[in-house]
């Protein structure tokens, strides 16, 4: 042990068992421990033994009761040397005079290394990581003491290392900071070593290991900024040349322009940045006790070129308060019974190219009192400067993430169509569920429950479920782009529908009630799209195909705690967006298919780059020297090829005779 206390367990019934602690110094001549008897006590020298008896397991704690501080001048009751305690202990478990078990403890405890007095200001010298590792013994974690199983620890004496010689830490943590790499000629432990390995291996000292490259000059690679983050300026001024889609909108103070938004967990985040060209419409629950105001409305916004624009704010009073307020069953008591708060905020950003031209804000105010739950609404919409009347909300040629899909029903005179998902209300029933449009680029999943009776006819149930699912798809075509014209059929892709079930197949369950097979309870919408270009730096997405399919389930009536004649069948609808390349990928060559071990993209050995040393990109040695060596090798190879040919042997024989 190397600490002031240690714990042990005694397994078995401790009734009638006497535990004692004995100091057992080793005989210097024989190296043996003295004979121990059961007449000891629970205290030996500076050591104490504490026993917590149990029915089947007893817990023993051996602790040192002395000061471990290094001695100062003229001080007593302290450690005179850094190695403060070197003693051998035995814990004995006896039943009467019969020894049942014993535990041998070798204690080597160093004095506490707490700094007392003046501290040296000498800085720690960090080695140059380009030539040697930063830590030669990573498992050396304790200063001035031996770390168990750390064989590279300089504080471990030879006697201590013998206790754990066979259990030393391996690898980098155990001190092997320069392991042989696979390309080294002396490293022949590779499985399936190819025949040409001795010709291409590297003959180098372990001091020139490639692992040092991970720590070269201590530099840290900077991760690339995501599309939602941009580097902030340290001082106001000209920001950048414009916003890109997804960039956060900045304020005059170089802060994010924030509006409450929903997180992935469904909760509202008050300081969420507004992203350029990304609309949203969220609702957040709030109470008077937890109400907080957002950004001040006099905050100026960076237009994208360094100029700052002021928000045009219009305040209105809410009239239909019941749309936003619900009563709480257990109201919270606050100091102010009612307060004038914001019920809704509507932001309209007018943009052109990469810049923001104008911001119009409409704020609806109302009174919120104790015991009321407020459903706040925050809406952000980006409108092109060339399309400010908003009569047609699809001014961009391609789809943008978060925009509704453009659907059409080209088989009727009224060509307007829709593609929606459920937005369940209280109770989750399909009859009371609202609808929300499918948004481009956002995989979605929604559902509701349908009431089904125990005597429900299976054919009627299948038809009813199919009608419910088909009510979400009031369209025959989906626009390839967000500005697809109703008069041009080439701007649309027809939705591929797969039948939910085969009506000709007999799926009857006989006279059984409450069981129906092949119920199309899941609607699957798969949309394939690709990036076909960019307009003013904004990627333009185009839809290539849409498939509608159904997944069937077996419905069986479930009888709960109170068995009634009505059960609930959950039906779901999912939307999945699949991105594919705009152009077919380059097909693999026959060499890449048959000889994958020589593919440069998947292996370290790359035969197509065998002549890399002859190029100007190789800087390992002077180009003239590299060329000379290559020509010499080529001459030797050519000479061997010529001399080994049959015709050369005939010419040689004729010349001799």
Automatic annotation (TrEMBL):
Residues 112-221 form the Tectonic-1-3 N-terminal domain. It comes from Crypturellus undulatus. Belongs to the tectonic family. Transmembrane segments: none annotated. Keywords: Cilium biogenesis/degradation, Glycoprotein, Signal. This is TECT2 protein. Residues 241-384, 398-580 form the Tectonic-1-3 domain. The keyword Signal applies. GO terms for cellular component: MKS complex. GO terms for biological process: cilium assembly; protein localization to ciliary transition zone; smoothened signaling pathway. It comes from the Eukaryota. The keyword Glycoprotein applies. Part of the tectonic-like complex (also named B9 complex).
């Amino acid at each position: 042990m190397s600490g002031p206390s240690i714990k042990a367990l005694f397994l078995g019934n401790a009734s009638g068992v006497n535990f004692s602690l004995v100091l057992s110094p080793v005989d210097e001549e024989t190296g043996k421990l003295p004979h121990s008897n059961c007449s000891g006590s629970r205290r030996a020298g500076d050591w104490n033994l504490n026993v917590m008896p149990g029915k089947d397991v007893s817990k023993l704690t051996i602790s040192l009761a002395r000061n471990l501080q290094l001695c100062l001048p003229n001080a007593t009751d302290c450690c005179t040397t850094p190695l403060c305690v070197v003693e051998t202990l035995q814990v004995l478990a006896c039943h009467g005079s019969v020894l049942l078990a014993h535990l041998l403890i070798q204690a080597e405890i160093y004095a506490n290394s707490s700094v007392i007095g003046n501290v040296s200001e000498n800085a720690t010298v960090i080695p140059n990581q380009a030539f040697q590792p930063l830590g030669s013994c990573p498992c050396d974690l304790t200063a001035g003491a031996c770390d168990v199983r750390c064989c590279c620890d300089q504080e471990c004496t030879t006697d201590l290392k013998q206790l754990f010689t066979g259990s030393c830490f391996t690898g980098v943590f155990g001190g092997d900071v320069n392991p042989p790499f696979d390309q080294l000629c002396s490293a022949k432990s590779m499985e399936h070593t190819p025949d040409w390995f001795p010709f291409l291996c590297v003959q180098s000292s372990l001091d020139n290991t490639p692992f040092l490259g991970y720590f070269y000059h201590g530099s840290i690679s900077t991760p690339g900024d995501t599309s939602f983050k941009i580097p902030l300026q340290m001082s106001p001024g000209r920001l950048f040349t414009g916003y890109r889609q997804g960039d956060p909108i900045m304020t005059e103070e170089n802060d994010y322009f924030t509006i409450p938004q929903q997180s992935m967990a469904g909760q509202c985040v008050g300081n969420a940045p507004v992203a350029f060209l990304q609309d949203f419409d969220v609702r957040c629950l709030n109470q008077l006790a937890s109400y907080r105001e957002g950004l001040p409305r006099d905050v100026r916004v960076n237009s994208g070129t360094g100029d700052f624009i002021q928000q045009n704010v219009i305040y209105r009073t809410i009239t239909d308060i019941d749309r936003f307020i619900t009563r709480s069953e257990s109201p919270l008591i606050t100091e102010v019974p009612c307060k004038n708060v914001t019920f809704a905020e509507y932001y309209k950003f007018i943009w052109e190219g990469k810049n923001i031209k104008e911001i119009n804000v409409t704020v609806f105010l109302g009174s919120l009192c104790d015991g009321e739950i407020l459903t706040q609404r925050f809406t952000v919409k980006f409108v092109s400067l060339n399309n400010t009347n908003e009569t047609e909300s699809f001014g961009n040629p391609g789809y943008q993430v978060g925009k509704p899909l453009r659907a059409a029903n080209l088989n009727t005179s009224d060509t307007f169509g829709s593609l929606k998902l459920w937005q369940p209300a209280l109770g989750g029933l399909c009859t009371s569920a609202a609808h929300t449009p499918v948004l481009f680029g956002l995989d979605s999943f929604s559902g509701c429950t349908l009431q089904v009776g125990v005597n429900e006819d299976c054919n009627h149930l299948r038809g009813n479920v199919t009608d419910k699912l088909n009510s979400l798809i009031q369209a025959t075509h989906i626009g390839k782009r967000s500005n697809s014209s109703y008069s041009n059929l080439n701007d649309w892709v027809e939705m591929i529908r797969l039948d939910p079930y085969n009506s000709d197949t007999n799926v009857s369950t006989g006279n059984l009630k409450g069981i129906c097979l092949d119920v199309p309870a899941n609607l699957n919408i798969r949309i394939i799209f690709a990036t076909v270009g960019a307009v003013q730096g904004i990627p333009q997405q185009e839809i290539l195909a849409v498939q509608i399919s159904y997944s069937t389930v077996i419905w069986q009536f479930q009888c709960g705690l109170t068995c009634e004649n009505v059960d609930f069948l959950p039906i779901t609808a999912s939307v999945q967006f699949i991105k594919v390349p705009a152009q077919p990928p380059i097909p693999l060559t026959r060499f890449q298919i048959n000889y994958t071990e020589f593919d440069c993209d998947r292996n370290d050995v790359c035969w197509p780059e065998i002549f890399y040393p002859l190029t100007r990109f190789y800087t390992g040695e002077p180009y003239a020297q590299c060329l000379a060596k290559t020509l010499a090798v080529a001459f030797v190879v050519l000479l061997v090829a010529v001399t080994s040919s049959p015709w050369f042997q005939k010419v040689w024989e004729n010349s001799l005779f």
